[in-house]
Design brief:
Layout: H1 4-11, E1 15-21, E2 30-36, H2 43-53, E3 57-64, E4 67-73, E5 78-79, H3 83-95, E6 104-109, E7 112-119, E8 122-128, E9 132-135, H4 139-145, E10 151-155, E11 159-163, H5 177-181, E12 187-193, E13 206-212, E14 217-220, H6 224-238, E15 242-247, E16 253-260, E17 264-278, H7 288-292
Parallel strand pairs: 2-3, 4-6, 11-12, 13-15
Antiparallel strand pairs: 1-2, 1-17, 3-4, 4-5, 6-7, 7-8, 8-17, 9-10, 10-11, 12-13, 13-14, 15-16, 16-17
């Protein structure tokens, strides 16, 4: 069923917004541009606009055949999953009057249907967890990080994941981007346990950082897909279904992770709307098959 507000978005000029996700204040967390399209546009034009926006991700929304479709582009390529871009899309849809508080909406993507919901001042997004595969320790990774890695994994998202000891100064880590580009992964997650949290406490269970120069992102400030990927490890390690996490980038971010079924995680966090307006540039129409591939 198409609501009146949804019908209006299909006929109106394209909208664009800037949202900072996993933060309560502007210029913190992870920024994403969100574009509400008036019709299908080619991948080339979406990529060009994402490069122009120069955010770690630009999220593109399209209402087609009664469904909401979502794609994400870094400045250099399209990705199959983006947590903060999904949360930013939910905040933008709420701002534009499409997502009603307390209402759950599915956004259909290359990773399936992603449920989003506004709960009070925050938002929830449901993502697949992905799969971690235990991998042998690698002396080259130890040299890159400047510390012995306790455990190492590869993953279904093409992220390499490294577990550092709790005392390692993760917030101060600086990586050689050229060396990182030589590693066979799309991105590198470096994580560590924090002081044990409690159900009502504020201390995080774990912290991480994420580096992805192959995707045009030297460091991503807060990475929902990385947290979704490692959540099962921390659920099993802590024995709890609700986790608190931090990302120790310069901008920083906080989020909560709730187990949902066998292979799903709900990410919960706050957002800050920085600006919203009309997109005056014209995008090249087309690419409808790419969009129709997202339909359920």
């Amino acid at each position: 069923m198409t609501t009146r507000s949804q019908e209006g978005t299909e006929k109106a000029a394209m909208r664009i917004a800037q949202v900072d996700a996993f933060t309560t204040r502007p210029f913190g967390g992870n920024g994403a541009a969100v574009v509400l399209l008036g019709g299908p546009a080619t991948g080339q034009s979406l990529q060009a606009l994402a490069a122009e926006c120069a955010q770690s991700e630009t999220a593109f929304l399209l209402h087609l055949q009664g469904q909401w479709l979502l794609r994400w582009f870094t400045p250099t390529l399209e990705v199959n999953l983006c947590g903060h871009g999904t949360m930013a899309a939910a905040r933008a849809l709420s701002h534009w009057g499409v997502l009603v508080p307390g209402q759950q909406m599915d956004l259909h993507s290359r990773s399936g249907a992603l449920a989003v919901e506004q709960r009070g001042a925050g938002f929830r997004v449901q993502l697949p967890t992905g799969r971690l595969r235990q991998a042998p320790l690698d002396p080259g990774l130890d040299r890159l990080l400047g510390t012995p890695v306790q455990q190492r994994w590869t993953s279904s998202l093409r992220y390499e994941v490294a577990l550092a000891e709790p005392g390692f100064p993760l917030a101060e880590l600086t990586l050689d981007q050229d060396q990182l580009l030589c590693r066979p992964c799309l991105g590198l997650v470096v994580m560590q346990a924090c002081r044990a949290g409690t159900a009502g406490g504020e201390s995080p269970d774990y912290a991480l950082r994420f580096f992805a120069p192959r995707a045009g992102i030297p460091e991503d400030p807060v990475t929902g897909s990385a947290h979704a990927l490692v959540a099962p490890y921390w659920w099993n390690r802590t024995g709890r279904d609700l986790l608190k996490a931090r990302q120790l980038s310069r901008r920083g971010g906080r989020l909560r992770l709730l187990r949902r079924g066998k292979d799903q995680v709900v990410l919960e966090g706050e957002t800050a709307l920085v600006w919203s307006g009309d997109l005056l540039a014209k995008l090249e129409p087309g690419g409808q098959p790419d969009w129709e591939d997202l339909l359920p």
